[in-house]
């Protein structure tokens, strides 16, 4: 079973305005509401590909109930633990002359809430897969993801970490199955610039020496690079297309990689499926559906 964790889920309220002026009354021409959060995005794309997963995280207030309702309506398996203080955040995204976003703060997740979720995760066992995405709660420490990975590695769970800075760096000695930094996030951890693809491969080897088994590096319009646990470097260019939306593209890449890996047990094909899913999302205004992903994936089969 695949599990995804989103510590701070959101309702994404996306408003399209032909022209948006600060300090003036603006009117929308289109409005949409989606459940949001990095782990949630991974689960939705997996669901679109016909792969079941369980969404874990927190909810609070009427917005939390709506996030859960929208996910359930999509057919997702969702278990968000209730938090007493505050309400799940609303992220407002305005599409106008330029794109503007205002992200909410979210509820007050306490140490007891975090402990309850960690207890839930302790039920995972050999053969399960866990995706840890995004930031930690304010009351969590930078060791939170590392502690979870260490606990679950001992139980045979494959852990995928898509995080930044210290939160990611501290997981490395715990030997996560896969990490997914982009070039800039790798440069931050290593403290050096990685201008060429060869530099990125060398940087991935440094992260592997720190403990990560597989390193998937998203390179934006250049495609992506994977250093697998057998010390083999894989690279695929991004497919041709017009980028209209980068939100959720990285999460889609994680979902596509997982789908490809589970289907083929081949790292090169898993990388291509990851790129296909990430690109399919980038080429549309929403998270990519199955047809869009499979159409791109077929180009490299």
Q: Evaluate the radius of gyration.
A: 19 Å
Secondary-structure-based class equals alpha/beta
**Widest sheet, order of strands:** 5-4-1-8-9-10-11-12-13
Q: Can you write the helix and strand succession as a string?
A: EEEHEHEEEHEHEHEHHEEEHHH
Please give the alpha-carbon distance between the first and last residues.
Answer: 26 Å
Average pLDDT level: 94
**So what's the overall shape?**
globular
Largest beta-sheet characterization? 9 strands, mixed
User: Percent of residues in beta strands?
Assistant: 15-25%
Q: How many H/I helices?
A: 10
Say how many strands there are. Answer: 13
In helices, the fraction of residues equals 25-40%
Question: Could you list the spans in which at least 5 consecutive residues all have pLDDT below 50?
Answer: none
Describe this structure in words.
With 301 residues, this protein is α/β, with parallel strands linked by helices. The chain has ten helices and 13 strands. It has helices at residues 38-48, 61-73, 111-121, 144-153, 165-169, 183-190, 197-210, 249-264, 267-282, 290-298, and strands at 2-6, 10-16, 30-36, 53-59, 77-82, 89-95, 99-102, 129-133, 158-162, 178-179, 214-218, 224-227, 233-236. Strands 5-4-1-8-9-10-11-12-13 form a nine-stranded mixed β-sheet, with helices on both faces. Helix 6 crosses helix 7 (197-210). The protein is globular, with a radius of gyration of 19 Å. The mean pLDDT is 94.
């Amino acid at each position: 079973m695949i599990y995804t964790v989103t510590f701070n889920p959101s309702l994404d309220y996306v408003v399209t305005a032909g022209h948006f002026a600060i300090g003036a009354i603006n009117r929308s021409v289109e409005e949409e509401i989606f459940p949001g959060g990095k782990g949630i995005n991974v689960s939705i794309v997996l669901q679109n590909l016909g792969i079941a997963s369980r969404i874990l995280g927190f909810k609070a207030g009427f917005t939390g109930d709506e996030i859960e309702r929208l996910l359930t309506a999509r057919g997702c398996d969702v278990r968000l633990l209730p938090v007493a203080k505050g309400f799940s955040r609303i992220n407002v995204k305005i599409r106008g002359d330029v794109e503007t976003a205002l992200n909410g703060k979210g509820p007050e997740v306490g140490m007891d809430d975090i402990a309850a979720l960690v207890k839930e995760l302790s039920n995972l066992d050999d053969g399960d897969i866990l995706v840890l995405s995004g930031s930690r709660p304010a009351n969590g420490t930078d060791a939170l993801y590392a502690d979870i990975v260490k606990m679950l590695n001992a139980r045979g769970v494959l852990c995928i970490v898509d995080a930044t800075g210290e939160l990611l760096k501290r997981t490395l000695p715990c030997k996560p199955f896969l990490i997914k930094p982009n070039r800039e996030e790798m440069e931050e951890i290593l403290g050096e610039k990685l201008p060429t693809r060869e530099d990125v491969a060398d940087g991935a080897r440094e992260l592997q020496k720190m403990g990560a088994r597989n390193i998937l590096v998203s390179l934006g319009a250049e495609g992506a690079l994977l250093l697998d646990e057998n010390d083999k470097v894989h690279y695929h260019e991004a497919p041709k297309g017009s980028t209209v939306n980068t939100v959720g593209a990285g999460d889609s890449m994680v979902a596509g990689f997982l789908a490809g890996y589970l289907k083929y047990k081949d790292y090169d094909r898993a990388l291509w499926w990851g790129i296909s899913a990430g690109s399919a999302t980038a080429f549309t205004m929403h998270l990519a559906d199955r047809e869009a992903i499979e159409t791109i994936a077929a180009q490299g089969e």
